[in-house]
Amino acid sequence: MASSSSSGLTFKLHPLVIVNISDHYTRVKSQLNPPPLTSTSATVNGVENQQQAPRVYGCVIGVQRGRTVEIFNSFELLYDPSTHSLDRPFLKKKQELYKKVFPHFYILGWYSTGSDAQESDMHIHRAVCFLNHPLTVIYR
C-alpha cells in the first residue's frame, strides 16, 4: 500500500486502485489502437504505427478518518471528450451501487491518466465539486 504526505494529510492507496486504473487505461488504449496484424513490423505500408495515448477518468472511493485518507477502490467515469460531457446518471448509479455494498465508503475524488493537466480535467473536477474538497489522483 502506497502512502505519502505533503499537506499534513496521510494518504493510503490500496493496490487494487492501481490495478483498476491500469486496466481501465489498457482497455481504452487497446480499443482505440488495436494491435497490428503482424507484430514483427513497426511500420504498416511504410507508415510508422503511432499509437495515441488515451486519457481516462474515474472516481476513487474510500474513507477519511481525521487526517488519514484511505483509497480502497475506484471505478471509471464515462466522459465524452468531443462534447466535454460526463455521464452524470452513470456516476450517480455507480455511487448508489457502491453505497449499497460498502456503506462506509465515499467518493473521495477522481483520477486521470497523463502527465499534465488538460482542459478536460476541469470539466471532470467541476462535475465532482459536490464533494467536500475532492482529491485528484494523476496516474502516469
TrEMBL record:
Gene Ontology terms: cellular component: COP9 signalosome
InterPro entries: JAMM/MPN+_dom
Superkingdom of this protein's organism: Eukaryota
GO molecular function: metallopeptidase activity
Domain JAB1/MPN/MOV34 metalloenzyme per the UniProt entry, residue ranges: 7-129
Protein family per UniProt: Belongs to the peptidase M67A family. CSN6 subfamily.
PANTHER family, A to Z: COP9 SIGNALOSOME COMPLEX SUBUNIT 6 (PTHR10540:SF8), EUKARYOTIC TRANSLATION INITIATION FACTOR 3 SUBUNIT F-RELATED (PTHR10540)
Name of the featured protein: JAB1/MPN/MOV34 metalloenzyme domain-containing protein
Organism: Gossypium harknessii
